Amino acid sequence: MIDGGPAPAAPKTSTTLADLGPRLASGVLMIAMALTSLAVGGWPFIIFWLIAGLAVNWEWQRMTGGAREPARFLLGSLVLIAVALLVGNAKRDEAVLVLLFGTIVLAAVASTGSRLWNAAGLLYSGALVLSVALLRLSKIDGFESILWLFAIVWGTDIMAYFGGRLIGGAKLWPRVSPSKTWSGFLVGISSGALLGLVAVSFYAVKVDAIPLVLIGVFVGAVAQGGDLFESSVKRRFGFKDSSHLIPGHGGFMDRLDGFIAAVTFVAVFGAAKAGAATAAHGLFIW
């Protein structure tokens, strides 16, 4: 089911009709599961994103190669589970320390030539699990913060695609992502920011529209940067897709690259403004 070795890096081609059905079905299912877990909250939400984090770590360890891959994946899985349990029990500082210590241990387990890259995978996947749980479990505005993020990241991604196709023009970073354009980037981040404002406006969140749109634009740019970062990692190690776990979409890293960057930034930003316990609320107070 999963290729054992790397595939040559190449620009993404257009989706064929044969792939369209599985791609649409997978996309709808992933969105439905993400929104359902968000609505339910609590441990179901944490478990949903823990599974995503485990998949991301597996894909990263597989891509970056090196010795003792099963041991690295097992160690990373144990660390991610511990992080999820700690943050789910409001032990946020302990979760951060476990993630950092686990990353150091994984680096020691890895072989010399790939040590930093292997360890970075645990930090990358752990940032997802820790950040998304920190926001959703925030004492105030936890639900709204994730909904806002979904709207920004999904809106940015979709509108960047259509903006780039309709307007065209100069490429954003052709060596890493030949299909991305500056026009798509600008259309995407502005549209995502507005969609984020609309999403939270339906709920009892008192927001100042202008600051929220401005930070939304920056978050959209961070998400696009996360997409480019993941593309550069794949190209460095000769992979076109991070895996084939999701029919028609590639791997979890391929679908979550922008979200991981955005949610990590937002969690740090919110915690810096309002404290870790109310990180989500920090996004909406100015």
Count structural domains: 1
Rough outline: globular
SSE pattern: HHHHHHEEHHH
**First-residue to last-residue Cα separation:** 49 Å
Q: Structural class, from secondary structure content?
A: mainly alpha
Share in β-strands: under 5%
Query: Quick one: biggest sheet?
Result: 2 strands, antiparallel
Uncertain runs:
1-16
How are the strands of the largest sheet arranged? 1-2
If you had to describe this structure to a student in words, what would you say it looks like?
The protein is built from nine helices and two strands; from the N terminus they run ααααααββααα. By secondary structure, it is mainly α. The protein has one domain. The protein has a two-stranded antiparallel sheet with strand order 1-2. The radius of gyration is 19 Å and the shape is globular.
Topology readout:
Blueprint (H helix, E strand, L loop, with lengths): L16 H24 L1 H23 L4 H20 L3 H18 L5 H22 L5 H26 L3 E3 L3 E5 H20 L7 H28 L15 H23 L12
Antiparallel strand pairs: 1-2
Helix pairs in contact: 1-2, 2-3, 2-5, 3-4, 3-5, 4-5, 5-6, 5-9, 6-7, 6-8, 6-9, 7-8, 8-9
Keywords, please?
globular, single chain, 286 residues, mainly alpha
Nutshell version of this structure?
With 286 residues, this protein is an all-alpha fold. The protein is 71% helix and 3% strand.
